[in-house]
Amino acid sequence: MVNLSYQFIGLILAAGKSSRMKVDKAFVRYHNQPQFEYAANQLMPFVEEVFISGKENNDYGNFEVIFDQKEFENNGPISGLLSTFQLYPNCSIFLLGCDYPYLSIEVLKLLNDKFLESKKSVCFMNNTNGYLEPLVAIYTADDLKKLMDFWQSKQTSLRHFLESINPLILPAPHNNDILSIDIPTTL
């Protein structure tokens, strides 16, 4: 059920194909629980509600699941963000991919604190390659309104969108903090 009073929600991206991983990354257990659940629990202290951008026929426990809307599906992470924005058009969204097992609550707190201070979208930059990390980021409601125009111009890269909105960019405390695990490994 859509609660229109929310101002700041969390979204865990767990609907990916996991083609490089060969198993569904959302259910890999790095911390004695499915990774989607671990990520969601990390976001809970910072937002009013955490949602899972998930796949049909998967069990996400007690979390409310948002499925990709037909018009957006099969376009990667932007699909989940756009589908959520359609339901919650006035919310800022703390976005987190499900495949960041090294990410600590302290790093998420840093991101959240800078968002609250600046009132701007905020993200980390990879210290090695200089890329912005769009899947560990907070997007303001105002910037998310621009996402639809971006999408309608046939663009699907969240990194390019993030670059276009002039976010507050933070250096990653450590590159492992924003390391996405895309191939089978152990911590």
Features:
187 residues, alpha/beta, 7 strands, 5 helices, Spore Coat Polysaccharide Biosynthesis Protein SpsA, Chain A, seven-stranded mixed beta sheet
Descriptive report:
- By secondary structure, this protein is an alpha/beta fold.
- It has a single domain (8-178), classed as Spore Coat Polysaccharide Biosynthesis Protein SpsA, Chain A, CATH 3.90.550.10.
- It is built from five helices and seven strands, in the order βαββαβαββααβ.
- Strands 3-2-1-4-6-5-7 form a seven-stranded mixed beta sheet, sandwiched between helices.
- The longest helix has 14 residues, at 105-118.
- The protein is globular.
What is the radius of gyration? 15 Å
Task: Look up the CATH topology.
Answer: Spore Coat Polysaccharide Biosynthesis Protein SpsA, Chain A
Broad structural category = alpha/beta
Contiguous uncertain segments of 5+ residues: 17-23
Could you give the distance between the termini?
Answer: 37 Å
| Element string (H = helix, E = strand) | EHEEHEHEEHHE
CATH superfamily, by name, is Spore Coat Polysaccharide Biosynthesis Protein SpsA, Chain A
Binned, the helix content reads 25-40%
Overall structural domain count: 1
Separate helix tally: 5
Q: Report the strand count.
A: 7
If strands are numbered along the chain, what order do they take across the biggest sheet?
A: 3-2-1-4-6-5-7
Biggest sheet record = 7 strands, mixed
CATH architecture assignment: Alpha-Beta Complex
Shape: globular
- The first-level CATH class is given as Alpha Beta
Mean pLDDT: 84
In terms of DSSP E residues, the strand content is 15-25%
